[in-house]
Amino acid sequence: MKTVIIGGHRIAYYLARMMISKGSHVYLINKDPDVCRELARRLSAIVIQGDGSKKEILDQIELSPEDIVVVLTNTDKDNLIISQMVRKYYGVEKIVTMVNDPDNVEIFRKLGVKAAISPTNLLITTIQSLLFSEEIENLLLMEEGKVVLLRLEIPETSPSAYKSLKEIPLPSESILGGIVRKDDFIIPRGDTQLLPGDRIFVICEPSVQTRVIKILVGE
């Protein structure tokens, strides 16, 4: 199995180093000759200078369906073209593609790029989670022993799955404060629906903790 990394610089280097340590045969493609020289000097990998969106460059690697391709160029258009090419011409299914503009993530997925990752969205989600956690932790410090913070994930079998908050009989001693759904952080309202896979934050009194878990997660 080969790991092919197209574009990128620092990310490409660290990713290649990790994959080499796991025994993968790593190929790197980059347009920049200076970057290529640096990667070749620092890594035990095959480095090809060229445009990864050109089939004649990709042909040099002899890609096969079991290989992994990671696309990291600075242009979403190129990333989409490369992702579609390696799947169409070489049968590669394990494709991870960076999406520079978070608004393009859904477009990539609709066009068949399943592992389309937006660093911007990941940062936003992390920051939102940190801010929310910080507010909760401050509350817990002020109300130590009086409240409990629950972080739960909604399973497919949850009695609350696919229901709106106003339909869920949560006790009055509890508050559902936030939902993390894929790349989004949602502040819930009465008509907000809970879906399997949602990660939720609940503040409640210790006396109703078991009841809240049963309602949201199930037995």
TrEMBL record:
Q: Which InterPro entries match?
A: NAD(P)-bd_dom_sf (IPR036291), RCK_C (IPR006037), RCK_C_sf (IPR036721), RCK_N (IPR003148), Trk_Ktr_HKT_K-transport (IPR050721)
Identify the Gene3D superfamilies for this entry.
NAD(P)-binding Rossmann-like Domain (3.40.50.720), Regulator of K+ conductance, C-terminal domain (3.30.70.1450)
Please state every residue range assigned to the domain named RCK N-terminal.
1-119
Q: What keywords would UniProt list here?
A: Ion transport, Transport
Q: Which residues form the RCK C-terminal domain?
A: 137-218
Keyword Ion transport attributed: yes
> Has UniProt tagged this entry with the keyword Secreted?
no
Molecular function via GO: monoatomic cation transmembrane transporter activity
Gene Ontology terms: biological process:
potassium ion transport
Q: Indicate what this protein is called per its UniProt record.
A: TrkA-N domain protein
Specify the species. Answer: Pseudothermotoga thermarum DSM 5069
